[in-house]
Design brief:
34% helix; 6 strands; alpha/beta
Length: 206
């Protein structure tokens, strides 16, 4: 599997052999769904909380006598059916995180990469580096490459100028290779890998 390497100017600069075990799989939506759901659940804060009957600050005095009123028997104004009472079965602070086997996470990443390759939305560039941290300069490069929605994966470190120039561009994310993940790959139209990122992925899945 060969893919052309481009420069930021949009010109071809050689080609690269891609591993079929990483980029040549038939994408499975069920595996991608499981991984995205795991990622989103893991980052959910879970700090939602309502006051129940036991936590509401209200008098515990019996609101009226037990017998003789013709009404239902009630012992506390904290009951959910009264205005100002506690909420029944309301949300409580908890973790939404659940387990996903490491093998499934690894497979999902390969399926996400394969889906981008299959849809011709995978671009390999020589390096993600620019001379000055100007957004205008970087936008001109992106226009030449027809990038409007993209995830750019650099090497182990993202160049400071490139990161500063890209951070105010909408629908463009820049991450080091350590931060590559299924959700960010799928939420952007194009996936842009540097040569260093491709080599790091080959090493990772070897």
């Amino acid at each position: 599997m060969k893919l052309a390497i481009h420069t930021l100017e949009g010109l071809e600069n050689g080609s690269l052999d891609l591993s079929e075990a990483i980029y040549g799989l038939e994408p499975r939506t069920d595996i991608l769904y499981r991984c995205v759901r795991w990622q989103l659940a893991k980052r959910q804060q879970g700090t939602h909380q309502t006051q129940g009957r036991s936590t509401i600050a209200r008098t515990t005095r019996k609101i009226y006598k037990q017998k003789g009123t013709g009404s239902a028997r009630h012992g506390s104004a904290k009951a959910p059916q009264f205005r100002g009472g506690g909420r029944s079965f309301g949300p409580v602070s908890r973790s939404h995180e659940h387990d996903l086997p490491k093998a499934v996470r690894s497979l999902a990443l390969r399926h996400a990469l394969s889906s981008k390759f299959k849809d011709n939305n995978l671009i390999v560039i020589d390096q993600a580096e620019i001379a000055s941290p100007k957004t205008k300069d970087l936008l001109s490069h992106f226009n030449k490459m027809s990038l409007k929605s993209a995830l750019i994966i650099s090497g182990t470190e993202v160049q400071s100028n490139f990161s500063l120039a890209a951070r105010s561009i909408p629908n463009v994310d820049v991450l080091p290779i350590q931060g590559i993940n299924v959700y960010d790959i799928l939420r952007r139209e194009k996936l842009v890998l540097t040569r260093a990122a491709v080599e790091a992925l080959e090493e990772r899945f070897k």
